[in-house]
């Protein structure tokens, strides 16, 4: 499938570019079907974007009243835990907006991941189910140094699952059990923006972009659905011009 690559000097420029894309996609989605549905990525990378969207430069220019925010994945921890993606979204975005949008966290009982995953799948059917597969207007993704996206890690049954809309990982990842959107839902979204920064992602990014047979999770997704990559130069050093 199609890969669109945007290389930015650093995280700030990357966040500014993705904010502009967010605004454009929101306008298009609302014009087309009256709302803008987004599954947010977690981890460290997107925080700068969420803070920018909540800043005076952007917050009053975006249609928060017609926007619905979901999560692409979550760690099975309490909502106030330092590793909670929902907590990061609240701190970086929602708590800074005078009129925050609808937000649907993934975890309500950290001790019952399967129950929360089933509940989220039902929520997606209920709120996004006008197509055979719940269809987001936008899914924001990050990429791990191992090429994972959302919580679909190499070697996990979750990555191989072709049916589930949302699922609880059996394996612990970085000390937590997790819930993730299924690959099927991520591939079905109208658009996927992948944000990658930092030298630690360099090897995985180069493989995903330049090795057609790569088995990295994000490379497999890219063969299934188009990706709009926004990366910084630390993750993707400008190639020296030929002959130098
Ligand atoms: C999560 C994310 C995960 C993340 C990558 C990259 O919950 O951790 O959803 O998929 O996007 O692990 O994480 P960083 O942005 O922290 O490098």
Q: Could you give the topology of this structure?
A:
Elements: E1 3-8, H1 11-33, E2 36-40, H2 47-53, E3 67-71, E4 73-75, H3 85-92, E5 102-103, H4 113-128, E6 138-141, H5 157-160, E7 166-168, E8 178-181, H6 183-188, E9 192-196, H7 202-210, H8 217-224, E10 227-232
Parallel strand pairs: 1-10, 2-3, 2-6, 3-5, 6-9, 9-10
Antiparallel strand pairs: 4-8, 7-8
The chain binds 6-phosphogluconic acid.
Brief account:
The protein has 244 residues and is an alpha/beta fold. Helix content is 33%, strand content 18%. The model has no long low-confidence stretch (mean pLDDT 95).
Written description of the protein model:
The protein has 244 residues and is of the alpha/beta class. It has helices spanning 11-33, 47-53, 85-92, 113-128, 157-160, 183-188, 202-210, 217-224, and strands at residues 3-8, 36-40, 67-71, 73-75, 102-103, 138-141, 166-168, 178-181, 192-196, 227-232. It has a seven-stranded parallel β-sheet, covered by helices on one side. A three-stranded antiparallel β-sheet has the order 4-8-7. Helix 2 (47-53) links the parallel strand 2 (36-40) and strand 3 (67-71). The two termini are 32 Å apart. The mean pLDDT is 95. 6-phosphogluconic acid binds at residues 41-45, 72-73, 85, 142-144, 148-150. 6-phosphogluconic acid (6PG) is lined by residues 41-45, 72-73, 85, 142-144, 148-150.
Order of helices and strands: EHEHEEHEHEHEEHEHHE
Please estimate the helix content.
25-40%
**Cofactors, ions and other ligands in the entry:** 6-phosphogluconic acid
Give the averaged pLDDT, no decimals.
95
The second-level CATH architecture is 3-Layer(aba) Sandwich
Structural class: alpha/beta
Strands, count: 10
Return the domain count. 1
Q: Mind describing the biggest β-sheet?
A: 7 strands, parallel
Q: How would you sum up the global shape? A: globular
- What is the number of helices? 8
If you compute it from the alpha carbons, what radius of gyration comes out, rounded to the nearest whole angstrom?
Answer: 17 Å
Strand order of the largest sheet: 1-10-9-6-2-3-5
- Text of the CATH class: Alpha Beta
């Amino acid at each position: 499938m199609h890969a669109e690559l945007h290389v930015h000097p650093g995280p700030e420029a990357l966040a500014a570019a993705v904010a502009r894309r967010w605004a454009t996609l929101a306008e298009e989605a609302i014009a087309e079907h009256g709302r803008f549905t987004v599954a947010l990525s977690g981890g460290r990378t997107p925080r700068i974007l969420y803070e920018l969207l909540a800043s005076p430069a952007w917050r009053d220019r975006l249609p928060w009243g017609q926007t619905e925010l979901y999560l692409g994945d979550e760690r099975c921890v309490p909502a106030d835990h330092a590793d909670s993606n929902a907590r990061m979204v609240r701190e970086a975005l929602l708590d800074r907006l005078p009129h925050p949008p609808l937000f649907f966290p993934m975890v309500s009982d950290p001790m019952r991941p399967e129950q929360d995953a089933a509940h989220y799948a039902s929520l997606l059917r209920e709120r996004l189910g006008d197509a055979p597969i719940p269809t987001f207007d936008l899914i924001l993704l990050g990429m791990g140094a191992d090429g994972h996206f959302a919580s679909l890690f190499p070697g996990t049954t979750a990555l191989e699952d072709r049916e589930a809309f949302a699922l609880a990982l059996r394996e612990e990842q970085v000390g937590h059990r997790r819930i993730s959107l299924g690959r099927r839902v991520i591939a079905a979204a109208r658009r996927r923006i992948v944000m990658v920064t930092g030298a630690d992602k360099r090897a995985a990014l180069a493989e995903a972009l330049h090795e057609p047979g790569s088995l990295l999770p994000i490379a497999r997704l890219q063969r299934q659905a188009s990706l709009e990559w926004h990366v910084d130069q630390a993750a993707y050093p400008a190639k020296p011009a030929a002959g130098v």
